[in-house]
Amino acid sequence: MTATMTDAPPPAAPKAAGARRRSGRPLGQTLMIVAGALLLVAAVRVITGSNQLDSAGQVSAALSLAVPIGLAGLAGLWSERSGVVNIGLEGMMILGTFGAGWIGWQSSPWLGLLCGIAFGVLGGLVHAVATVTFGVDHIVSGVAVNLLALGATQYLAKLFFAGGKAADAGGNPKQSPPADALPNVTVPGLSDGLASVEHHHWFLVSDVAGILGGLVTDLSVVTLLAVLLFAGSQWVLWRTPFGLRLRSCGENPVAAESLGVNVYTYKYAAVAISGGLAGLGGAFLALVTSHTYLEGQTGGRGYIGLAAMIFGNWRPGGLAMGASLFGYSDALQLRNGGVTVHALLLLLVVLLAALAGWKLYRKAVWQGALSAVAAALILVWYLLTDEVPGDFVGATPYVVTLLVLSLSAQRLRMPKADGLRYRKGQGK
Fold first, then answer.
1. What is the rounded distance in angstroms from the CA atom of residue 137 to the CA atom of residue 199?
2. Distance CA 222, CA 321 (A)
3. Is the pLDDT assigned to residue 122 strictly greater than 50?
4. 121 has pLDDT over 80
5. At CA 54, angle to CA 50 and CA 60, rounded to 5?
């Protein structure tokens, strides 16, 4: 993502198919990483005695907290793959929360969900008109969308929720009346069986049971929809002609136009889809997390979603990992407080020590030394304390996000034309 604009598009055309770099990791390597992570978490759980570290409740809470962040990140991915920087995601999520709360309490949560998506699409179209049609700086337009969405929803909340039937039903200028809940899904039999295995606290076996149990117990239908949207986005963007043309607009719009692609149309479609996904993330907060619209309930998740998208290297799989990491750390501090976060320190020591060894092996002396020093300091903190102070617990998810982003920054590659101003016919 870039904060500056230039009128000149990148001169080089996309590489031929045979010259493309392979994306993703081999399946065997991925499985090895997952197995290693499970062993590490299981070992830390046994050493620290913190059984909530990977319990079904912890995993379920982490998934719930990760969904709105993941949807915001997926929204940013669609937009930026077409070459439009979208930091207006926070505002589009705010519009989604209001639309879902406004319609949700008056009719049904399903209609509220659709209205939240529609409000997000509206915010996306405003951003598209400003950036694609009028060539406004993408950052300026995104900030304007955030400010407009915040001001508009505050005004509309006072207009629609402060009096009449809404006030009688529990509404006020800062929140809507409560809406009915959307259904949850639990796999019968499997959920109870996994819970029984988890409660034995066996090494690795109970850890796997707890993680799987959190994935099959009391899941919102919107969570399942989000999983399908991630898989669908991966397929559409990388396996269909539509996705190829859309990504070409973000890599080299001049070359795409020379091949007959209507760049404006694809940019509009991508930013509208981006707004809809952000609106769905806001609707999740309003209808699943709290069952009501609340002023300020997005809490910066649009920006965090952008950070997760960058961590994921503008790909759905990596984005899902980034959102899950933030959701996990957030759930850890919300559910269990300083004791369990203290156990997380030991896990962080092992990861930093492994990173230091890898960097030193790759002759990156300064990075390896810094990682080793950080690991030593955190180990001293872990050994000299029994609990993380409450003032630090609330900052856990943000610290984890910054740490991961700083460690992954060297391998990032954004779309080449991301954020660049484009005018139809400028390649002629």
1. 55
2. 18
3. yes
4. yes
5. 130
The whole-angstrom separation of Cα 266 and Cα 419 is 15
Question: What are 119's two structure tokens?
Answer: 């409000």
Question: 250-264: buried (b, 16+ CB within 10 Å) or exposed (e) per residue?
Answer: bbbbbbbbeeebebb
CA angle 340, 304, 266 (to 5 degrees): 145
Residue 19, token pair as written in the block: 């010259």
Extract the tokens encoding 160.
């629609």
Give the angle 155-160-163 at the CA atoms, nearest 5°: 115
How far apart are the C-alpha atoms of 349 and 353, rounded to whole Å?
A: 6
Cβ neighbours of 55 (radius 10 Å)? 25
In whole angstroms, give the CA distance from residue 213 to residue 241: 38
pLDDT digits (tens, 9 = 90+) for 375-412: 899 899 889 888 877 767 777 777 776 766 666 555 67
Is residue 245 within 8 A of residue 258, CB to CB? The reply is no
> How big is the chain, counted in residues?
428
pLDDT digits (tens, 9 = 90+) for 306-350: 988 988 889 998 899 889 888 888 887 777 666 778 888 888 888
Distance separating alpha carbons of residues 76 and 82, to the nearest angstrom = 10
Closest CA relative to residue 249, chosen from 7, 14, 27: 14
